[in-house]
Amino acid sequence: MVSIGDYYSFIPCAPGVSDKSAKVFVAGHRGLVGSAIVEKLKQHGFTNLILRSHAELDLTRQADVEAFFASEKPEFVIVAAAKVGGIHANNTYPADFIGINLQIQTNIIDSAYRNGTKKLLFLGSSCIYPKFAPQPIPEDALLTGTLEPTNEWYAIAKIAGIKMCQAYRIQYKWDAISGMPTNLYGPNDNFHPENSHVLPALMRRFHEAKVKGLKEVVVWGTGSPLREFLHVDDLADAVVFMMEKYSGLEHLNVGSGKEVTIKELAELVKEVVGFEGDLIWDTTKPDGTPRKLMDSSKLAGLGWTPKISLKDGLVDTYKWYSENVKQ
Ligand SMILES: NC(=O)C1=CN([C@@H]2O[C@H](COP(=O)(O)OP(=O)(O)OC[C@H]3O[C@@H](n4cnc5c(N)ncnc54)[C@H](OP(=O)(O)O)[C@@H]3O)[C@@H](O)[C@H]2O)C=CC1
Ligand SMILES: C[C@H]1O[C@H](OP(=O)(O)OP(=O)(O)OC[C@H]2O[C@@H](n3cnc4c(=O)[nH]c(N)nc43)[C@H](O)[C@@H]2O)[C@@H](O)[C@@H](O)C1=O
């Protein structure tokens, strides 16, 4: 039997982004993901990138976004702008995480469709899946169970983004696709002490402890949760790959396929940074989802695989941090 997904996965003459002079709008180009995508597009020879900083274009403002699309008419759009943060930020600012993300993605997706964009890629996150999803998590685990409470607001916004792309594909035969990255890291990450994700938070904390000669560093939770990490250059590579090769109703998982416990991650970051003191576990802080390893075999089946190991990626990120972040 042909499912609705199979039927609408094919749009006649759905264009991939192959013309290197095509106008490509990367929303959020100064962030971790957006900056890596811009570099990757340049490496692939794209010459006509449309970029706006947050100060130049506030994507939560519907009228401004509509005016921008009406005047620029980008042919391809990659949505890497969002309100993003780690477990503490998600848990502390639920209104921002649901409200800002719904506004940004809705404004961009609708304006892109109405102004003739040929293809749009929306980025979600592995937190869209139920807290106790089967592992590794297949795409069809979406909406099969209760979400992790620390990030349900953000997850609901991201699920709405996937569904909006699907609805526009079904109703308008428009080529909107979605990619769900696992936990990302790399140059240009957010190293805020409380609001960032675990990897940049620990890199900064270990680095500062090394510089100050401290004997101990506090790490949140029990250390037992498992996380899958992907270097942002691999994610950027997958994004360009999907823009060129994928046109389908279903969102695609983008992961490394490798998981570590937070304790193992902390030991690895400690080693790369060269901090020699002890780890103290603050179990008053939440662990979040116990495990979220994604099944990325659909993307692998199309021919994409990650290349950067966690160790190499950490060394690369710490080099960038040492050279670029004010001490
Ligand atoms: N980092 C991760 O581990 C993961 C990220 N993702 C997804 O990847 C995407 C990018 O995340 P990431 O690069 O990490 O996030 P960042 O916070 O590094 O970058 C987000 C970018 O969006 C911009 N932005 C935010 N709000 C607005 C606004 N109202 N108007 C214009 N620009 C705005 C930010 O600009 P400014 O800083 O000036 O506000 C920033 O440049 C998101 O969709 C996220 O959900 C998915 C899985 C994991
Ligand atoms: C990408 C993903 O990121 C978020 O989910 P998360 O994976 O739980 O994110 P996290 O990186 O903040 O934490 C991972 C683990 O690490 C532990 N942990 C230890 N020490 C620190 C620490 O110092 N900071 C942080 N942030 N976590 C720490 C922490 O307690 C947790 O067990 C979502 O909200 C959502 O944004 C999303 O989609």
Give a short overview.
By secondary structure, the protein is an alpha/beta fold. 43% of the residues lie in helices and 14% in strands. Helix 2 crosses helix 8 (232-245), helix 5 (94-114) packs parallel to helix 6 and helix 7 (198-212) packs across helix 9.
General description of the model:
InterPro entries: Epimerase_deHydtase, GDP_fucose/colitose_synth, NAD(P)-bd_dom_sf. One of its GO terms (molecular function) is GDP-L-fucose synthase activity. Its EC number is 1.1.1.271. Belongs to the NAD(P)-dependent epimerase/dehydratase family. Fucose synthase subfamily. With 327 residues, the chain is an alpha/beta fold. It has 11 helices and 11 strands. It has helices at residues 4-9, 32-43, 62-72, 87-92, 94-114, 152-172, 198-212, 232-245, 262-273, 297-302, 310-324, and strands spanning 24-27, 49-50, 76-79, 119-123, 175-181, 183-185, 216-220, 226-231, 252-254, 259-261, 278-282. A 6-stranded parallel β-sheet has the order 2-1-3-4-5-9, sandwiched between helices. A 3-stranded mixed β-sheet has the order 6-8-10. Strands 7-11 form a two-stranded parallel sheet. The radius of gyration is 20 Å and the shape is globular. The termini are far apart. Residues 1-8 have low confidence and may be disordered. The protein binds NADPH dihydro-nicotinamide-adenine-dinucleotide phosphate (NDP) and the ligand C[C@H]1O[C@H](OP(=O)(O)OP(=O)(O)OC[C@H]2O[C@@H](n3cnc4c(=O)[nH]c(N)nc43)[C@H](O)[C@@H]2O)[C@@H](O)[C@@H](O)C1=O.
